Amino acid sequence: MTARTTYVLSALLALSVTSCGAGTAAPPVPTTTSSTPTATTTTKVPYPPAVAYAPTVPERTRRTAGGHQVNTCVPDRLDQNVFTLTSSDGVRLSAMELGEGDRGVLLSHEQGYYMCSWLALGEELAAAGYHVVLFEYRNHGASETAQDNDNIDRDTRAALAALHSFGAERVLLGGASCGGTSSAVTAADEPELAGLLILSSPAKCAGQEGEAAVRKITSPSFFAVSPEDYSGNMIKETRRLYEASGAAAKHLEIVPGGRHGTDMLREDDPDKLHRLVRDFIDSAFRR
After folding, report:
1. HSE-up of 275 (CA within 13 Å, CB side)?
2. Other C-beta atoms within 10 Å of 33: how many?
3. Over 89-158, what HEC string results?
4. How many other C-beta atoms can be found within 10 angstroms of the C-beta atom of residue 64?
5. In which element (H, E) is residue 272 found?
6. What distances in angstroms separate CA 55 from CA 49, 93, 128, 156, one per listed residue?
7. Residue 43: left if φ>0, alpha if ψ -120 to 50, beta else—which one?
8. Could you give the 3-state DSSP secondary structure of residue 222?
9. 83-118, pLDDT tens digit by residue?
10. For the ranges 16-20, 106-110, 123-127, 252-256, which has the lowest average pLDDT?
11. Which of 170, 189, 264, 281 is placed for a possible disulfide with 194 were both Cys, Cβ 3.0 to 4.6 Å?
């Protein structure tokens, strides 16, 4: 069992799978590489000026030429895409925009991970014509530390508002673990929702009531989980979300093994799940 797995598992068990824990002590996530074409961005709304704040993990944080703080896992070639968000309760968040257009995709990472969990898929989607925003939650990486690590949908909502302001109209929200639970809570209030993507998410996490949220969501929804994830606890949780989902078009993919969240897209046999996720996103926007 890795240190990262122990970290998140401890928090899940401590809260009876109601939280994935704070990210302040999270181990680094390796930078993900991708053979897909490099995405470019044309921003229609200027980014707000950089602001000064203390990042949660200084040793994993650097500044772009524009002064925005970003995780060291993000390659320098993407510095022009980095900006700073402010949540409704005033917490500063590191974020990144990829691609352009009116088809928006917001991807939210696991608690204890970083925005680079989704970077390879984000760049691939941007190269395929989607408008993508990635960000880091409070108490993670290059984002600001906050006393309140519940109500993390405030961070997801801030990122979604930015995506809309950049020109995205219909949007698909995706998230892993607690990021998926928060995505569901946020998606339940989104009038232009194309779809919901959930990887290894608990029904309740970090103050988020995901089960109640998915009941309200009728847009196409995709759920994936590994049966051995957290000793079999996570499949029970993700099944609860799937079964409660109000979507007529919904799918639950059981991925062999015990990988958690976006690790399922990178390790063991990721090709099948990657293909299913891409097909789901494409089909959601064709509806």
Report:
1. 4
2. 10
3. CCCEEEEEEECCCCEEEEEECCCCCCHHHHHHHHHHHHHCCCEEEEECCCCCCCCECCCCCCCCHHHHHH
4. 18
5. helix 270-286
6. 17, 9, 32, 18
7. beta
8. strand
9. 999 999 999 999 999 999 999 999 999 999 999 999
10. 16-20
11. 170
Which two three-digit tokens encode residue 24? 């302040």
Label residue 17 left, alpha or beta by phi (over 0 means left) and psi (-120 to 50 means alpha): left
Paired sense of beta strands 92-98 and 69-71, if any: unpaired
Asked if 205 contacts 181 with a C-beta cutoff of 8 angstroms, the reply is: yes
Is 177 within 8 Å of 263 (Cβ atoms)? no
CA atoms of 211 and 269, how far apart (whole Å): 29
User: What whole-number distance in Å separates Cα of residue 136 and Cα of residue 147?
Assistant: 16
Q: If you ran DSSP here, which 8-state letter would residue 69 be given?
A: E
Return the structure tokens found at 239: 């099944």
Angstrom CA distances, 45 to 48, 79, 160, 162, 167, stand at 9, 17, 14, 9, 8
Query: What six digits make up the tokens of 173?
Result: 């929200």
Amino acid at 37: P
Pair of tokens at residue 76:
């320098």
Alpha-carbon span 243 to 5, nearest angstrom: 26
* pLDDT, mean of residues 145-157: 95
pLDDT at 179: 98
pLDDT at residue 20, as a whole number: 43
User: 114 near 60, Cβ under 8 Å?
Assistant: yes
pLDDT per position as a tens digit, 267-279? 766 789 999 999 9
Strand partners, 170: 103
Do 213 and 189 form a contact (C-beta atoms < 8 A)? no
Structural tokens at position 15? 């809260």
For 204, the 3-state DSSP assignment is strand
- A 10 A CB-CB count for 40 gives 12
- Give the Å distances, CA to CA, from 136 to 24, 94, 139: 12, 6, 8
